[in-house]
Design a protein that fits this description.
By secondary structure, this protein is an alpha+beta fold. The protein folds into two domains: 69 residues, Orthogonal Bundle (Helix Hairpins), CATH 1.10.287.110; 51 residues, Microbial ribonuclease fold. The chain is 36% helix and 14% strand. The strands form two sheets. Strands 1-5-4 form a three-stranded mixed β-sheet, with no helix packed on it. β4 and β5 form a beta hairpin. It is elongated and about 60 Å long. The two termini are 22 Å apart. Bound molecules: zinc ion. The site of zinc ion has 8 residues, from loops.
């Protein structure tokens, strides 16, 4: 545990995958999307779950997912953004730092302020000559410390 960043792990800002929301995979046909949408929308319709905010949130998410994917162009755009998100999530280095840029305190930790506003805590003992990669849990930023 606490090997690298202590960036918050709450992924509240990351949107759910629209295909997952609709219970389809990315190759799903329009017909499948529509069928699943209709089933889900029945299940989560706010009229059936009065006062349940989690249900209405789900309903809105389903609706939004379907509206995005039912349109060929917006689906294409969405697929592109998914691809990019996957890519960004896998060790794409956005920032390179050298150890000398870090200001280590007496307990051999240094803070690095991520672009998303989260602080990375860097432990000197984790650094080695080959370089050290840390990922932010809050955004998709990765930093390489050399
Ligand atoms: Zn970040």
């Amino acid at each position: 545990m606490d090997k690298e960043a202590t960036c918050s792990k709450s992924n509240g800002t990351v949107e759910g995958n629209y295909y997952e929301i609709l219970g389809c995979d990315q190759k799903a046909s329009f017909f499948e999307l529509k069928r699943n949408y209709q089933q889900l929308i029945k299940k989560y319709h706010p009229d059936k779950h009065e006062g349940s905010s989690s249900t209405s949130e789900k309903f809105i998410a389903i609706d939004k997912a379907y509206k995005t994917l039912m349109d060929e162009n917006s689906r294409k755009d969405y697929d592109t953004s998914l691809l990019k998100r996957d890519f960004d999530e896998h060790f794409l280095i956005h920032v390179e730092l050298s150890q000398s840029e870090l200001d280590f305190s007496e307990d051999d930790t240094a803070l690095y302020l991520c672009r998303c506003g989260e602080n990375f805590v860097i432990h000197k003992k984790d650094l080695n000559e080959g370089g050290y990669v840390m990922e932010c849990f809050q955004c998709s930023n990765s930093i390489l410390i050399k």
